[in-house]
Design goal:
With about 150 residues, the protein is α+β, with helices and mostly antiparallel strands. Helices cover about 35% and strands about 30% of the residues. The termini are far apart.
C-alpha cells in the first residue's frame, strides 16, 4: 500500500465560512450598502426641505397664494405645495431674508410660486410674490394691490 495515496473513504475537506458563502454575501452586502447610502441621502434631503417648509416666510407666502381668488380660479381649490422647494432662507432673530421657489398644484393644474421676502422687526414683507401657471405660463403677481386705474 502506498502511504502517499489518499484514502478511498476520506471525507472531502470542509471549506471555511467565506469559501461557502461569498457568492451570496458579496451582492447582498453591496446592495445593503447602496440602500444605506440612499437612505442617508433621503434623510438629509427631507431635513433640508422640511426646514425650508417650516419657515415663516414659506408658510406666509403659501397662505397668501391659497387665499388669492385669481390663483384659486386658475388652479382650483385646494392648492397644495410640492415637495421640492428650492432657494435660500436666512433668519437671525427678528430679521432675515428668503428667496424661494415652491411648486404648487390644484385640481385644475400646476404652478410655481416665486418669492423674495425680507423680515424686519419680526414681520415678513414680500418684494416679489409671483405665481406662474404651468400650462399657460401666465404670471399672477400677488405683490400688486389690485387692479390699477388710470388717473
Amino acid at each position: 500500500m502506498n502511504p502517499y495515496a489518499a484514502p478511498v473513504n476520506a471525507l472531502p475537506e470542509r471549506t471555511h465560512w467565506w469559501g461557502r458563502n461569498w457568492k451570496w454575501f458579496v451582492p447582498t452586502g453591496c446592495l445593503g450598502m447602496l440602500l444605506l447610502a440612499a437612505g442617508f441621502v433621503f434623510v438629509i434631503v427631507s431635513i433640508v426641505f422640511g426646514a425650508m417648509k417650516s419657515s415663516d416666510a414659506y408658510k406666509t407666502a403659501l397662505a397668501k397664494v391659497q387665499a388669492d381668488p385669481r390663483v384659486v380660479n386658475t388652479l382650483g381649490s385646494p392648492i397644495r405645495d410640492g415637495f421640492f422647494v428650492s432657494g435660500t432662507t436666512n433668519v437671525s432673530g427678528s430679521s432675515g431674508h428668503a428667496d424661494l421657489t415652491v411648486p404648487i398644484s390644484g385640481p385644475k393644474g400646476k404652478g410655481t410660486i416665486y418669492f423674495v421676502a425680507t423680515k424686519f422687526a419680526g414681520e415678513w414683507s414680500f418684494s416679489k410674490l409671483i405665481v406662474e401657471v404651468g400650462k399657460t405660463g401666465e404670471r399672477i403677481d400677488l405683490t400688486e394691490e389690485g387692479p390699477r386705474t388710470a388717473p
